[in-house]
Design goal:
With about 190 residues, the chain is an all-alpha fold. The protein has one domain. The chain contains eight helices and no strands. The chain is globular.
Length: about 190
């Protein structure tokens, strides 16, 4: 009984997890209904599942482990081999990884020199680099790059809404990108189906 109360208390403290689970159930069942009978439906469901895990782990722990980059690379190479697009898969993964590493180091320099923040808060964390590389491997090039920029646009839009609701300044608002990687994945996956 104590564990049940603890779980309920945790869900009340972090309602984003509940919303993420509901969103995942809605989109997964919608996807199954719309794509039933399509070839390689299990690959698209695996993509949605992987990025829902990334979003959930990011919400729970504020970290995105390197395991998700490895899973994304394996899934992406599998997709690339099945669709005879392995070159695009590798190019997408490498380009997203390089671009996100550049954003990571640029954010570190900006944080130290311009904002003069001394504490260990990251503008763009290395877990975001892992998720971005995974996104690139899964969708390949150039669609993986589009998915990454869509993630950033959704994050800026979401942070703007949250800063207005909470009454905080936009630049000091902390954004967890896991949810936005998931939303971008859903939008790209749904758009590919149409």
């Amino acid at each position: 009984m104590k564990q049940v109360y603890h779980t309920i208390g945790f869900m009340l403290k972090k309602p984003e997890i509940f919303y993420l689970i509901v969103l995942n159930i809605i989109f997964s069942t919608t996807w199954i209904g719309l794509a039933w009978g399509r070839q390689f439906i299990w690959l698209d469901l695996s993509i949605i599942f992987l990025f829902s895990l990334i979003a959930a782990v990011d919400q729970l722990t504020d970290r995105i482990p390197i395991l998700f980059l490895l899973l994304g690379a394996i899934l992406g190479v599998t997709i690339g081999c099945l669709r005879d697009q392995l070159n695009f898969t590798i190019l997408g993964g490498l380009s997203n990884s390089i671009l996100s590493i550049l954003i990571y180091f640029t954010g570190q320099i900006y944080q130290k020199r311009v904002l003069r923040w001394q504490y260990a808060s990251h503008v763009f964390g290395f877990g975001d680099v892992y998720a971005c590389g995974s996104l690139g491997f899964i969708f390949g090039s150039p669609l993986g790059n589009v998915a990454f920029f869509l993630t950033l646009l959704l994050a800026i839009f979401g942070a703007g809404i949250q800063s207005k609701i909470q009454g905080t300044t936009f630049l000091k608002h902390r954004v967890k990108l896991g949810l936005y990687f998931y939303l971008a994945t859903l939008l790209i996956t749904m758009a590919k189906m149409l």
